[in-house]
Design brief:
The protein has about 210 residues and is mainly α. It has one domain (about 10-205). It contains nine helices and two strands. The protein has helices spanning about 5-10, 15-25, 25-30, 50-65, 70-90, 90-120, 130-145, 155-165, 200-205; strands at about 170, 195. The protein has a two-stranded antiparallel sheet with strand order 1-2. Helix 2 runs antiparallel to helix 4, helix 4 (about 50-65) packs antiparallel against helix 5 and helix 6 runs parallel beside helix 8. Mean pLDDT is about 90; it is low at about 1-5.
């Protein structure tokens, strides 16, 4: 289980970059495979599953903060970005199928969280922090879907419904991740990072 403290810890540029490199090195096999959340030795090494969303998340953060990571790490970042883009171009059909499947999976998981909260708002398993990460990764996927000119009205409509339901059980707050990342995520686009779960809000819906 991921705890709130994990999200409040200082942002680790080196760990994010190392994870990005590991994911990108496995990306070609991943997009050609059938799993949405690829292992390929990541779990045993203490790293998250290989996903396109995970790659896009780290790329945004590291690119936005590249002035702080040093020239050597910038070169490593640029090489990973170039590798990602080359794989996207070579395996575009596979890649696009994968990101749509990942988007649908993440939307479904967020919806499950909302339903669990409504059924049992007191449950200690109803931690909002993992959903903030999931929704942030989903947003990066949506950017890539737009870049790829993929049209999926059902996905768009489902997300709009889930977002509306999500906003009903959270309340405004300060930025929920470490302050270093606040400049990366605007409150307008990434509004869920400026919200927190409120048990009283859920009770009022009963």
């Amino acid at each position: 289980m991921t705890h709130k403290a994990d999200f409040k810890q200082p942002y680790d540029y080196s760990k994010d970059l190392k994870t990005l490199v590991m994911m990108t090195n496995r990306l070609e096999n991943y997009v050609r495979g059938t799993e949405i959340y690829g292992n390929e030795g990541m779990f045993t090494s203490g790293f998250p599953a290989v996903t396109i969303g995970g790659i896009l998340l780290r790329t945004r953060r590291l690119n936005a903060l590249r002035e702080f990571i040093g020239k050597s790490k910038q070169a490593t970042l640029d090489a990973s970005i170039a590798k990602h883009d080359a794989i996207y171009e070579e395996w575009k059909a596979h890649y696009e199928t994968k990101i749509v499947d990942e988007a649908k999976s993440r939307i479904e998981r967020i919806d499950q969280f909302i339903q669990e909260v409504l059924e049992n708002p007191e449950s200690s398993t109803n931690a909002f922090e993992p959903e903030q990460m999931r929704r942030t990764i989903l947003q990066e996927i949506l950017h890539m879907i737009h870049r790829s000119n993929i049209q999926d009205d059902t996905l768009t409509q489902t997300l709009a419904s889930v977002d509306a339901n999500l906003q009903e059980i959270i309340v405004p707050s300060a930025f929920q991740w470490h302050p270093t990342l606040e400049t990366v995520y605007s409150s307008d686009e990434f509004w869920w990072l400026y919200r927190e779960f409120n048990t009283d809000e859920v009770r009022d819906r009963d």
